[in-house]
Amino acid sequence: MTMNKAIRFYETGTPEVMRYEDIIVGEPDTGQVRLRHVAVGLNYADTYFRDGTYQIPLANGMGVEAAGVIEAVGEGVTDFKVGERVTYTGFLNTLGAYSTARLIAANVLIKLPEEISCETAAAMTMRGLTASYLMRRIYDFKAGDTILLHAAAGGVGLIVAQWAKLLGLTVIGTTSSDAKAAIAKAHGCDHVINYSHENVAERVRELTNGVGVNVVFDSVGKDTFMSSLDSLKRRGLMVCVGTASGPIPDFNPVLLALKGSLYITRPALADYIADPVEKQALANELFDHVASGRIKIEINQRYELKDAVQAHRDLESRKTTGSSIFVI
Description:
Layout: E1 3-9, E2 18-24, E3 32-42, H1 44-51, E4 60-61, E5 65-73, E6 85-89, E7 101-105, E8 110-111, H2 118-136, E9 146-149, H3 155-166, E10 170-175, H4 178-186, E11 191-194, H5 200-207, E12 213-218, H6 225-229, E13 232-240, H7 254-258, E14 263-265, H8 276-292, E15 299-303, H9 308-316, E16 323-327
Parallel strand pairs: 9-10, 9-12, 10-11, 12-13, 13-14, 15-16
Antiparallel strand pairs: 1-2, 1-4, 3-5, 3-7, 3-16, 5-6, 6-8
Helix pairs in contact: 2-3, 2-8
Protein name: NADPH:quinone reductase
Family: Belongs to the zinc-containing alcohol dehydrogenase family. Quinone oxidoreductase subfamily.
GO molecular function, one term: NADPH binding
C-alpha cells in the first residue's frame, strides 16, 4: 500500500507543534472517496485549530480545504467517479486536508469546471465561498452602498473587493503597509487606509462626508472592533468574520444603541454551505466569475507540505498577501 504524508498535531500551541508524518490511506468506506490531493489551501482559520482557539479532539489532522483527483469511490457514491477533479472546504467534517491523499465523505465535494485548476480551487474554495456568502447572503447590497473591508490585501479581502465592484459598491479597504495598499487598490478598493498610521474611523468619516459605511467586514477582531463600530452609519451592519488580532472583548449590547442602533453578526461559512443546493449555488456564481476573469485569484505564496511550520509563521506574522497554498 502506498505511503502518504500528512501534517498532524498532538497538542495545541505555536506552529512547531505540527509534525510531518507518514500515513496509510486505505480504501473508501460507504459514502466516501479516496482523494489524491494536487493542492491544499492554507487559511488563517487553520491557526485557530492549531493554537486551541477552536477546540478539537487531539491528535488530529490540520487543514480544511484542498483540491484533487478522485482515486476510488466507496459503496453508495453515485455523484462522483474515479478521475474527476473536485474541491472541498468545511470545518470539522473536512479536517485533515494537509495531506497528500485522504478518505473523505463524498457529500462535501464540489466538482470543478474545466476552466478552474486544482491550484486555483485550493486557493479560493474557502475564501471564495466566504466572499460569495458575504456578498450575496449577509446584506441586500444596492449599487452605491459603501463597505469598509479590513485586511483588504488578504485572500478573502481581494475577492470581496473585486466582487463588491461588480455590484457597484464603494470599497474602503484597510491594510498595514503601503505595499499591501497598492495590492488592495489594484483589486478594486476605491480608498485604502493604512491603519498603522491613520485613524480608521476618522478617515472613514472623511471619505463618507460624515455618514459612515453601510457594512463593515472585520476579520481582525480585538484591535479593530471599536473603530469598526465607529465607522458605521446609523443602523449599519458590523460583520465579524475573524479574530486575527485576538477575540473581541466582552461588550454591553447597549453600545450598539449608543452608536446608532447598529447590527452585529458573527457568521460562519459552515452555516451557509450546509444546504447542498445553496452551497452549489454559491459555488456556481464564484466559479463563473473566476472562469470569466471578472474575479482574479492571486496565489502569492506556494509551499511544500513539509514546510507547514514556516507557512503558519508567515501567515501569523502578516507577511502574506492574497492566497497561500501547499503544492503536493
